[in-house]
Amino acid sequence: MNAVAEDVSRFLQANRGSARFRVPATALQFDALLRKGLALSVADAAASTLGVTRERLARLIRISPSTLERRFKEKADLTGAEADALYRIIGLLGVAQRVLADDANVKSWMARPQPGLDGRIPLDLIDNAAGTEAVILLLEQIYHGLVP
Description:
Layout: H1 3-15, H2 27-36, H3 40-50, H4 54-60, H5 65-74, H6 80-100, H7 103-111, H8 122-125, H9 129-143
Pfam family, one: Xre_MbcA_ParS_C
Domain Antitoxin Xre/MbcA/ParS-like toxin-binding: 96-145
Protein name: DUF2384 domain-containing protein
């Protein structure tokens, strides 16, 4: 399994809540899970770990807050681009938890300007793939002692 899949697995294992699904072990199993849909409990766990509201999470996964609330009211899993965007974020959270050790550190670090991101706040960058990659790269540099 690649490093991102391992970090996503770690996050899902720790945060699947009452959702009943087997945590994938391969990229193809993750593909199947994303096509089936990610449970809303995963979205809530991501919001909690980031220290953001559902409204902010909706913006991070590039849907309107009302669409996300409708998913919760209908108890509908996140699918398609929504699931893919949430997968990107939980991959980042898996890395952050591995590097920063606990959720309190993750929340704090994600909300503060980071010198390795030219003073930008990680939460402001993770609404797209390139920004998320920049944050993951910085976290990996920190993990390996290469702090910019």
